[in-house]
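Please predict the structure of the following assembly.
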Amino acid sequence: MTTATPTVGAGVQPPAPLTRAARVRKRLNSRTATVVSIVLALLWTVPTFGLFVSSFRPEDQIKTTGWWTFFSDPQFTLKNYQDVLFSSGSSGQLASYFINSLAITIPSVLFPIAFASLAAYALAWINFRGRDWLYIGIFALQIVPLQMALVPLLRFFSTGVSVGGIQLLPAWDLVDEQKFAQVWFAHTCFALPFAVYLLHNFISQLPGDLMEAARVDGATHPKIFRTIVLPLITPALAAIGIFQFLWVWNDLLVALIFAGGGDETAPLTVRLAELAGTRGNEWQRLTAGAFVSIVVPLIVFLSLQRYFVRGLLAGSVKG
Amino acid sequence: MEFDFAAEQPKFLMLMYGLIAFVAVVGGLLLLLDVVPTWFARRREAQLVAASASGAPVPRRRKQREGVFAFFFLLPTLLLLTIGLVVPAIRTTLLSFMDARSTNWVGLDNYGWMFAEDSIFRVLINTLIWVLLVPLVASGFGLIYAVLVDRARFESVAKSLIFLPMAISFVGAAIIWKFVYAYRGDEQDQIGLLNQIVVSLGGEPKQWLLESPLNTFLLIVIMVWIQAGFAMVVLSAAIKAIPADIIEAARLDGTTPWQMFWRITMPSIRPALIVVVVTISIATLKVFDIVRTATNGNYDTNVIATEMYNQAFRYGENGQGSALAVFLFVLVLPLVIYQIRNLRKQREG
Amino acid sequence: MAFARSRQALAIAGVLGLALGATACGTGNDKKSDKAGSAECAAYEKYSGHDGKKVTIYSSIRDVEDERLKQSWKEFEDCTGIKIDHEGSGEFEAQLPVRVDGGNAPDLAFIPQPGLLKRFADAGKLKPASADTKAMAEANYSPDWLKYSTVDGKFYGAPLGSNVKSFVWYSPKMFQEKGWQVPQTWDDLIKLSDQIAASGTKPWCAGIESGDATGWPATDWLEDLMLRTAGPEVYDQWTTHGIPFNDPKVAEALDKVGTILKNEKYVNGGFGGVKSIATTSFQEAGTPITSGKCALHRQASFYANQWPEGTKVAEDGDVFAFYFPGIDPAQKPVLGGGEFVTAFADRPEVQAVQTYLASGEYANSRAKIGDWVSANKKLDINNVPNPVDKLSVGILQDPKTVFRFDGSDLMPAAVGTGTFWKGMVAWINGKDTKTVLNDIEGSWK
C-alpha cells in the first residue's frame, strides 16, 4: 500500500476515472472502519475513565452514586490524592516507597534482558548439541507458577545451599535495603523464560547470510553478538524492557516475600494495597492510588512506544 | 511535610551497586569471551606449529569451541533458571506425591482428589474455558483492531487507549471492573455502569458476579481487556512490516480487501500471531489476581492458579496445591509440542 | 560503618557476579537507651539485659492499629533497649507459612487462628514458651484462653488482643424514637424483627464480602447459633470434628440462621435482597443503621471502627451494641476471637518480649491508647476508653461468661478458612442447608 491513504472527508476527485464507484465504496469502508475503531477505543477506555472521574469525587458520593452523575452534579475534591500522597505516619511517606519501586525495578529489568539476549543468541546461532531441547525446556519453564517457586527460592537466600550436610553456598543474610538484591534475583529468574522465548523469536529470524559473512571474516561469536546482533535487536530489547517494567512495577507478591513490607524496602504496590485494605472498602483511596501507580508505567510506555512498535516489526520481517 | 533524603541515600547506593554489578557481570562475561577465543587461537597456532614440525594430522577442534561459547553465553541464564525455576518445579512435582505436610509418600492420592472433588473438577473446567477463550478473543480483537486502525490519522492515540490496560496491574484491573459490575438494590442509585445501563433500558439490576456461568465470562472480559492491547500492538507492528511491493502487486491484480487479508496479511503475520497466542495462553493459564480480587473463586468462578495458592499457602495442603501446579505443567504440553514442531520446520526450511 | 556497608554491598555484587559468596554482618544498634535506670523504667527491670538487641514481629495488624501497637511498647523499648521491629501484612495468613518454610521466620508472630498455631506446632516450627512467659500467662489469663495455644501439653504463647463477636449493633436513638426494647431472648429478637419489618423497614442488614476472606461473617453467625441451640459442649465437639459437620444439630443451627439471613422480609436493609449479603462488604454492611434503612446488624466489637466519621458510639449515642441473646436467657455463651503471641526463636530477648506482651503492664499500656480489648485479668477496665470496649472487657472478665473461640479459626485451615467460608457464601447465594453441610463435611479429612 504505497499509495496515499484516502484522507477521510477530503472530498477530492479521484485522479483516474476507472474506479469511481470503487473509490466511493472504499471511502465508505474506511469511514466505517474509522467509526468502528473510535467506538471500540472509547469502549475500551470507559472503565478506566470511570475510575479516573471517581478519583476526584468525595467518598460518600463514590459510595452512593455512579461516576457519571459527576457530569450532572459535579462535586470535585483532591482529598483522595492528598490521602494517598501525603498521609504519613509510622508507615512512612509515599515518596520513600516510590524510590523503593525504582530501586527494585531498574536492575530487575536490566539483568534479565542482558542474560536472555545472550542465551537467545546462543540458542539461535551457535551450533551445539541439544540446543533445540534446551530451548524447548526454557520455553516450557514459562508455565511454572511463581507462587510455587517462592519457598525454595526464599530458602536459597536464607539458608544457602547444602548437600549432605556440606554447606556449598552460604546464606545471604541481607538486611534492610540490601534485600533489594534478593528481589532483583527473583525477578530475573522469573522473567528469563519469557524473555528468552521472545528474543529467540527475533534473533533466529535475523538474516543468516549476515552471520555467515561475519564468520567468514573471522569474527567470533562475542564479536558478532556485540557488533551485529545487538544493534539489530535494540528495538526488541526495548519492547521486552517495557513488558518487564510493567510486570515488576505492578508486582506485589514477589516484593512482599523477598523485600518485606517495611518502608525500607517495600515498593509502591505494597503501600497502596495497605492504604486500601486495612479499613476495608476505601474506594476513594483505591481510585486515587490506582492512578498514582499508573503514571510511571504510562510515561515509560509512551516514551518507548516508538521502539516498541519497531522492535516487534524487526522480528516479523522474515515471516 | 519534610522528606529525609539522608534516609533514602542507602537505597540509591544499593541501586548503584546493582548497576555496577550489572555492568561488571555482563561486561565481564563479554570480555571473558573475547579472551577465551584468543587463547584458543594461540593454542591452535601452537598446535599447528607443533603439527607441522612433527608431520602429524591437525586435530579438529572447531566443534568444541562452539560448545565453549554456547556454555558461557548460556551460563547466567541456566544458573538462574536452575535455582529459580527448575529446582522449584522438581520440588513441586515431588511434593505432589506427598501428603499435606510433605512427610509421607501418598502416591497418586492428590491427583485422585483433584478429579474426584466436584468443586476442584469445576476449577479444571473453568481453567479450560479461560484458556480456550482468552487467547482467541484477545488475539482476534487485537488483529481486527490493528487492521482497522492501520494508517488511520489518530492511529497512535487509538493504540495507546487500547494499550492502556496493560499498564494497570491485574489487581487494579479487577478493581476497575468490580466497579463496572457493582450492584445496588433496585430502589437505590446504581454505582455500577453495567447495571445502570440495564436499569436505564428498563431492566432489573443484576448481581452479575453471582450468576454462574455468566460470571466466569465476565471475568474473562477483564483478561481480554488487558491482553488485547498486547495483541494489537504486536500484530499491528507485524502488519506494518509486510513489504510494500507485495501489497502493491496484489492490488494491481485487483485483489479485494477480503482476499488481501487472507492471502497476504495473514500468512505474513503468522509468526507474530503465534507469539501472541502462545504468550496470552500461558498468561491465562497462570491467571490468579483477577479471580482472587474479583470473586476469590466463589460462585463457581475458581481457576487452577487461585485454588493452588489457597491449597498450598492458606490451607497448608502442600500436596494438593502441588498437584494442581503439576496439572498446569500438563496443560502447557500441547503448546510445547507445537513449539517443537515449529522449530523442526524452521530448521528444515 | 560506611566501610562495612560498602564491603557488604561489594559482596552482594559478588553474589550477583556468580561468585556466590556473600558475607554480611547485621547493622547493630549502637544507640544506648538513655532512659534506662529512670523511675518509669523500674517496671521493666525484669526484662533488662538485652540492650541493643532486635526482635522482629509479624502480624496482620496494619495502618492505624499498627501505629498504636508501636506506641504501646515504646516505653518498653526505651527502657530495655530492645528494638521491636513490627511488620503488618494483609496477606499474613498466606505469607507466614511461606516465610517459615523459606527459613525466614519472624521472631514472634501474632497468630489469630489456633488452627494455624497448631499446624506450626505440629511441624516443630514453633518454640514452646519459656517458663517466665508461661507463669505470666497463667497469672493473667483464664485456662479457657490458654488451652487454645496449648498443643500436646506444650504451651506456645499468651493471647494478646481479644474481641467479642456475640454483639448486635443497633441505634439507641432509633430504638427510643420507635419505642423498641433491647431483646433479652431469641424469641424477643424475632418478635422485634417482625415488629420492625411490619413498620416497613427491613430489620437486618448484613454483609459477608471481605476480599479473599469472603464468607467469614456468616460463619460467625452459625457459630453463635451453634453455641445457643446446641450448647458449648456440642460446639466443642463440632469444632474438633467430634461430630460430623453435617450433623442434624448443625443443620438445625444453620436453619435458625436462615430464619434471619435467608428471610427476604428481614434482609438486607439498605442493600437489596438476600443475595446482596454475599457482595456487600462486611465493613459497610452495618452503615445503613445510621441512615435508618436498617435496625440490626450482628457483628463483633471491632465493628466500632467501621462507622462513618462523626458517629457517636455509646449507649446514648447514634449506635451501640447489645449482647446477641440466647435461646435460654439463663445461659450466656459468648463467641470471640483473639491473637496469640507465638515465637519462632528462643533467644532471651525474644522471650523477654513475649513475656512482656503477656503482662498486665502491657495490656493497660495498650488499652489506654484506645480501640482495644483483652481478656487479660490485670487489665483495669477504667483504662479502656470507649464504651463498646468497656462492655466487651466487662463480658470477658465476668467469671460467669462461657467463652468459646471462633470455630472457623479452630478447624483445619482447609475447612475453617476454605470450604466453611465458601460454603456459607454458596448458602447465601441459594444453596440449601443440607448440600452445603455435606460439602463441608466432605472436605474435612
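Chain C has a mean pLDDT of 86. Chain C has two domains: 46-163+338-403, 167-323+412-443.
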